[in-house]
Amino acid sequence: MIQDKRFVSGRIKSIGFAVKGAYKLVTTEHSIMVQFSLMILMIIAGFYFHISREEWMLQILAFGLVLAIEGLNTAVEKIADFIHPEFHNRIGFIKDIAAGAVLFAAFSAIAVGALIYVPKIFNF
């Protein structure tokens, strides 16, 4: 593949690759499918509860963070499996660390969701 060194056409191609990668994530990776579905539910909940602009920003950042970190985790797993298809303790360690990063992001998103929706659901 020849690299496009022109600024505008190169950026357009980069965006195309990114969209293709996001589509592959959402259509092939089960963890992303679940998290993407939860994102859709949270968007619906946001409209239902009429959350504020600031709450929308926090919610968008939260699920964007989870999906982004999960995408990186998937990439780490795929490349680790490509490099060393058999089980190996060091590869397992690397995969566990990447999964741990997803867990941190997910806990943060849960905290944001709880701060936004618990008061609305229970009328605090």
From TrEMBL:
<dbReference type="InterPro" id="IPR033717">
    <property type="entry name" value="UDPK"/>
</dbReference>
<keyword id="KW-0594">Phospholipid biosynthesis</keyword>
<dbReference type="GO" id="GO:0046872">
    <property type="term" value="F:metal ion binding"/>
</dbReference>
<feature type="binding site">
    <location>
        <position position="29"/>
    </location>
    <ligand>
        <name>ATP</name>
    </ligand>
</feature>
<feature type="transmembrane region" description="Helical">
    <location>
        <begin position="57"/>
        <end position="76"/>
    </location>
</feature>
<keyword id="KW-0547">Nucleotide-binding</keyword>
<dbReference type="GO" id="GO:0005886">
    <property type="term" value="C:plasma membrane"/>
</dbReference>
<keyword id="KW-0460">Magnesium</keyword>
<feature type="binding site">
    <location>
        <position position="77"/>
    </location>
    <ligand>
        <name>a divalent metal cation</name>
    </ligand>
</feature>
<dbReference type="Pfam" id="PF01219">
    <property type="entry name" value="DAGK_prokar"/>
</dbReference>
<feature type="transmembrane region" description="Helical">
    <location>
        <begin position="97"/>
        <end position="118"/>
    </location>
</feature>
<feature type="binding site">
    <location>
        <position position="77"/>
    </location>
    <ligand>
        <name>ATP</name>
    </ligand>
</feature>
<keyword id="KW-0472">Membrane</keyword>
<feature type="binding site">
    <location>
        <begin position="95"/>
        <end position="96"/>
    </location>
    <ligand>
        <name>ATP</name>
    </ligand>
</feature>
<feature type="binding site">
    <location>
        <position position="70"/>
    </location>
    <ligand>
        <name>substrate</name>
    </ligand>
</feature>
<feature type="active site" description="Proton acceptor">
    <location>
        <position position="70"/>
    </location>
</feature>
<dbReference type="InterPro" id="IPR036945">
    <property type="entry name" value="DAGK_sf"/>
</dbReference>
<dbReference type="GO" id="GO:0016301">
    <property type="term" value="F:kinase activity"/>
</dbReference>
<keyword id="KW-0418">Kinase</keyword>
<comment type="similarity">
    <text>Belongs to the bacterial diacylglycerol kinase family.</text>
</comment>
<feature type="transmembrane region" description="Helical">
    <location>
        <begin position="32"/>
        <end position="51"/>
    </location>
</feature>
<keyword id="KW-1208">Phospholipid metabolism</keyword>
<feature type="binding site">
    <location>
        <begin position="86"/>
        <end position="88"/>
    </location>
    <ligand>
        <name>ATP</name>
    </ligand>
</feature>
<keyword id="KW-0067">ATP-binding</keyword>
<keyword id="KW-1003">Cell membrane</keyword>
<keyword id="KW-1133">Transmembrane helix</keyword>
<dbReference type="GO" id="GO:0005524">
    <property type="term" value="F:ATP binding"/>
</dbReference>
<feature type="binding site">
    <location>
        <position position="29"/>
    </location>
    <ligand>
        <name>a divalent metal cation</name>
    </ligand>
</feature>
<keyword id="KW-0479">Metal-binding</keyword>
<keyword id="KW-0808">Transferase</keyword>
<dbReference type="InterPro" id="IPR000829">
    <property type="entry name" value="DAGK"/>
</dbReference>
<keyword id="KW-0443">Lipid metabolism</keyword>
<protein>
    <submittedName>
        <fullName>Diacylglycerol kinase (ATP)</fullName>
    </submittedName>
</protein>
<keyword id="KW-0812">Transmembrane</keyword>
<dbReference type="GO" id="GO:0008654">
    <property type="term" value="P:phospholipid biosynthetic process"/>
</dbReference>
<keyword id="KW-0444">Lipid biosynthesis</keyword>
